[in-house]
Every structure is written in structure tokens, then in C-alpha cells.
């Protein structure tokens, strides 16, 4: 047989399109040609494959070898096609039997010694492979990351010899002890507890509402009042990831080559430094990797010292906050990464942080305060649901404080509220589309009148009013109420009143 067809998978974002590797051997001067839009890293596989075949005690054919990666319009990069190319050469040259090739797909990088090395983007390849009713042959180092996602069973191999023996029916793959990982679980690792938070009842209540309805939240207050501490405790009260969210989140981490984070099986909590660039936040670069907003998909993106971020960096958040995804365009392809995250931010009220602080004198001028607060654009603030001022605790509060409510008890209320939302609309209130709001968030006449007064006093946009109504719906869900009542809307408006931080209070 002089022609072999081997299936593999490319990587384009979190998609893994099928690649058919066609290997043809013909007479003529020995040569190795690769076609089908391969990048430099793919073309380099010729030397790796040649050395791997020889060191695995196979014969490298002294013939004209043509390898076609089809379809040709899909860009191919990386070393993930090494194993498939090597097996295609062995089958085309008649050294092994290729009758099982139609049932299998192959990904893996070959070392010069024929050992298989770990690659990234394995989970998307597994998901797509199983939709085609085939099994995936991959390096054993990758199998441990994703074996508990597999419905049909993975086929991990350690080297080219084992892969060839698998096709011959002479080898049965299994996970070794060091490759195995604990089964899937959704419990968060130790990230503290809400009982660690002393006082700050308003901020604790706002975090519970944010968790229950998947709302965005901004803390404002002087340094050392617990803003970062409270934000870090939010994952301890969030609901567990469902199966779809878990697959999407782990696929992103697989593409980003952050395998250790893949094992945690919990809602992500990302806290990029304020010196992060727009590309680091939104994704992109030469290899078009996912950014922090995508790595926070299904979880929390925490931005501390919000005004310290460059304004052009913050403004890239506006699109994913609305659409729940990031689009990265290149000359020959376009990537889309999921980015449905919960934004939690924290900031000081002024550059020194002590504006109207009873214990410290603020020496910032009105112009300095206006410039500082204006670093956060109005359109971005309009996409935040809850604004909470975190004041300094009274002297002696830490020493005299009693034990606060723990995360487990708060989480039970959050889970109950989320269940009501999912049963009612199939989505959390924060992600509720406008068409469903009219059905699920109806207001009585007194609520209508209250919202009109607030619109005039606060200058609320249409988006802001919709977000206020969604927050009120979440408060009603926490209260086990079928309808939004006036006190639910009043509480939601109280959290929105913090938008006044855009204005200078010196004027």
C-alpha cells in the first residue's frame, strides 16, 4: 500500500477541526514534501519523524514522500501532527497494518527518541473526536488531564512503538498511576471563608446578591477596609460548575496550556495586575492565546485598583461584558473565545485613598479626584450592577467582633436563588435577555413610579435601568418572592446610587 489516510485534529481557538493526513509514497529521488498550509513548526516535523522512526527500529523509506494536510484552507501549527505523520508513513510503506485507522484519531509530538511529549489543546480534540464516534490516541502525559471527560475511553501511548503496536492489536493502552488524576469534582479548593470578614454587612449582602444573580460589582473605599479580602471570598459561595460550563472552562485552560489549573475543577478566579496590557486581558498575540477575560469564563475576574489600569485597557471589557465572548481577527482566520465572566472591581475614592476618611487627611485637589475617577469610562460603569462603599471599621471592631456567617450557609441561599432562576428562565438573572425580562421581571405601579423618580434623580440610562430591575429580581429570589416588590427595587436602587463616584463631590 503506497497511500495512507490518518485522522488528526488542528487547533483554532477552542475548536479542533478534523485534519486528514494523506501520506503517499512514490518512486523517484528520496524526498519529503509537506503541503496543505503547514507553518514552520509543522514543516520541522520531517526531521523529528525521520529520527523517531529510525530510533524506534522502523525503516525510513528511501522514496519520494508526500504528506498532504487536508483541508488546505485551515492553518496548521505546532507539533501535534508528528504521531499521525509517522504512522501514515509506516502504513503507506507496508510496515504496519492500517485497518484500524478509520476508528482512531492521533495527536502527539515525537521526540527524536520516538518518545511522545505533552501537547496543548487536547480537551477540544477529545470532545470533537468523540462526536465522530472515534477514539483518540494521544501522549500519556495528556491523558491524565482529560481522562475523566472521556465517554468512550482514551488510548494513551508513551512512544511511537506503542502506537504502532496498538494498530497491530498487540498493545492495550491504560493509564499508569502517575498519569491518573482524581475524578471530576466541583468543590472549590480552600480560598478562605466568609467568616473571615469582620463587619461590612452592606458589602457582604452585596456579594451575596452578586453571587445569586451573577451580577457585576464595584467596591469603593479607603485602603485596608477589606475590599480585596471580600472579593477573594466570592468563589466560596458561587454555585458549582455545570457540565457545559466545566467543558468550556477546561477547554480554554487546555488551549492556554495551563494544565495544572485544569485539574482544580472549580470556578476560575483571575486577578490580573493593573500593569496588564489589553492583549493580556482580552487575548491575542502571535499565537492568539486566550486572555484573562476568557480564562475567567464561568468564574470571576477581579480588577483591583481599577483606575490604575490604562483606560484603553479597561474599555476592551465592554464588548465581552455584553456579548459573553471575545473575537480575535487575523488575516486568514477569526477566533472566538468564550468570555462570560463576573466582574468584581475595587478602587479608592481618590488618588491618596483617604477622601472623607475620619482618621486621615485627604490632600487631593478636586481636579485630581475628577481625573482619577474619570479613568474609568462611563460606558464601563454603566455595565456594573452594584456599587458599594466599603467604609473604615470603627476602632476596636476587630478585637470585639463576633463570628460572622460562614460561606456554607450563604452558599445554600445562593444555590436556592439560582435554582429558581434556572427553573424560571434557564439562565441567571445577570444573563437574562431583554425578551425574557418583560416576562420574568414585571413591575407593579408603585415600582414603576419609584424607578421613574430614580431615573430623573440619577440620570439612569436604559441599560442601567434594566440592570437595576435584574438586581431587584435577584433580591426577590433570595427573598423567595414570586414578584418584585417595592422594597426589593429600593434595595437595588440603593446599590446603584454609588454611580455618583463619577462626579466630584467637591463641587
Plain-language structure description:
With 507 residues, the chain is an alpha/beta fold. Helices cover 38% and strands 15% of the residues. The protein has helices spanning 40-43, 45-55, 82-92, 122-131, 140-146, 160-168, 201-213, 227-233, 243-255, 259-262, 278-282, 292-295, 311-314, 318-323, 366-373, 378-381, 397-400, 407-425, 434-440, 445-458, 462-478, 486-496, and strands at residues 3-9, 18-26, 31-35, 64-70, 104-106, 109-110, 116-117, 135-139, 155-157, 217-220, 269-270, 283-284, 289-290, 300-303, 325-329, 334-338, 342-347, 386-389. The strands form six sheets. Strands 11-14-17-10-18 form a five-stranded parallel beta sheet. Helix 7 (201-213) runs parallel beside helix 18 (407-425), helix 7 (201-213) packs across helix 21 and helix 20 packs parallel to helix 22. It is elongated, with a radius of gyration of 28 Å. It starts with a strand and ends in an 11-residue tail after the last helix. The model is unreliable at 184-189 and 502-507 (pLDDT under 50).
Nutshell version of this structure?
The chain has 507 residues and is of the alpha/beta class. The chain has helices at 40-43, 45-55, 82-92, 122-131, 140-146, 160-168, 201-213, 227-233, 243-255, 259-262, 278-282, 292-295, 311-314, 318-323, 366-373, 378-381, 397-400, 407-425, 434-440, 445-458, 462-478, 486-496; strands spanning 3-9, 18-26, 31-35, 64-70, 104-106, 109-110, 116-117, 135-139, 155-157, 217-220, 269-270, 283-284, 289-290, 300-303, 325-329, 334-338, 342-347, 386-389.
